[in-house]
TrEMBL record:
Keyword annotations from UniProtKB, A to Z: Amino-acid transport, ATP-binding, Cell membrane, Membrane, Nucleotide-binding, Transport
Membrane disposition: Peripheral membrane protein
Family: Belongs to the ABC transporter superfamily.
Compartments where found: Cell membrane
Gene Ontology cellular component list: plasma membrane
Protein name in UniProt: Amino acid ABC transporter ATP-binding protein (PAAT family)
Transmembrane domains' residue ranges: none
Molecular-function annotations in GO: ABC-type amino acid transporter activity; ATP binding; ATP hydrolysis activity
């Protein structure tokens, strides 16, 4: 169903199936995230966490089920009485509500920091150069990089590049921010700088966050809910204190042991 079933949720997966060949990565996955909620996905490598985020970014298409973003269906449009897969134009429109930060920064290497942040607001949202620049400077100040606006990405540390990537995502004023292991390519000290920026963001904004991370302390500090994901399904869904201290499933306990040993 379109619209009416979305019922105040910011993200909703209904029986979502995603396959790569014979590999069923998401197996009729259901879950929802409310506006303003911060949800962390954890689970073993290859379990489909990135796939969930890529489906939301429309970098992948579903093989079954539907995804809603707010009241709008992302994956399908209604044609007469039928739901048919959404076309590019519809995907682009709904995707505008979502921003994503990747593990590998993905900044535009030939553009200075300021332009990295203003490029999409100007060219995609049609903001004036002056408005986009004002907002970009505010955001770069917020992530602690006011003095780097004229640098090129290669002149920055990994942690600084990742903070630019966060500012760039926020410049599009998304309702939802997706974060995929954004600190795993960074040394601990640089990772801490990036996580501090997100802690501040969590404290000062009501943006909805869906995050994949191995940084368990961070997950615990900022998440309202942690979802343990295994074999295409969510096997445990709890507030972080419960999930980390009283995991019910043996699979969750084994996973947490392995992550903590790594740390
Ligand atoms: N483009 C693709 N083509 C084929 N198989 C893919 C593709 N993308 C992902 N997969 C497969 O889908 C499964 C889930 O991958 P995904 O990247 O979502 O896992 P993940 O939970 O993010 O793992 P990690 O913790 O290692 O990042 C894996 O088995 C992977 O090999
Ligand atoms: Mg992944």
């Amino acid at each position: 169903m379109l619209g009416s079933e979305a019922g105040g949720e910011m993200i909703r997966f209904d029986r979502v199936v995603k396959r790569f060949g014979d590999n069923v990565v998401l197996d009729e996955l259901d879950f929802a995230v409310c506006p303003g909620e911060r949800v962390t996905l954890i689970g073993p490598s290859g379990s489909g966490k990135t796939t969930i985020l890529r489906l939301l970014m429309t970098l992948e298409r579903v093989d079954g089920g539907t995804i809603h973003v707010g009241e709008e269906c992302l994956t399908h449009v209604r044609r007469g009485e039928r739901l048919v897969p959404a076309d590019e134009k519809h995907l682009r429109k709904v995707r505008r509500r979502i921003g994503m930060v990747f593990q590998q920064f993905n900044l535009f290497p030939n553009m200075r920091v300021l332009r990295n942040v203003t490029e999409a607001p100007v060219h995609v949202l049609g903001q004036s150069a002056a408005d986009a620049e004002r907002r970009a400077r505010e955001l770069l100040d917020m992530v602690g990089l006011a003095d780097k606006v004229d640098a090129f990405p290669t002149q920055l540390s990994g942690g600084q590049q990742q903070r630019v990537a966060i500012a760039r995502a926020l410049a599009m004023s998304p309702d939802v921010l997706l974060l995929d292991e954004i600190t795993s390519a960074l040394d601990p000290e640089l990772a801490a700088e990036v996580l501090d920026v997100l802690r501040d963001l969590a404290r000062t904004s009501d943006i909805t966050m869906l995050c994949v991370t191995h940084a368990m302390k961070f997950a615990r500090d900022v998440s309202h809910r942690v979802l343990m994901f295994d074999n295409g399904k969510i096997i445990e869904d709890k507030p972080p204190a419960d999930l980390f201290e009283r995991p019910e499933q043996e699979r969750t306990r084994a996973f947490l042991r392995s992550v903590l040993e790594e740390a």
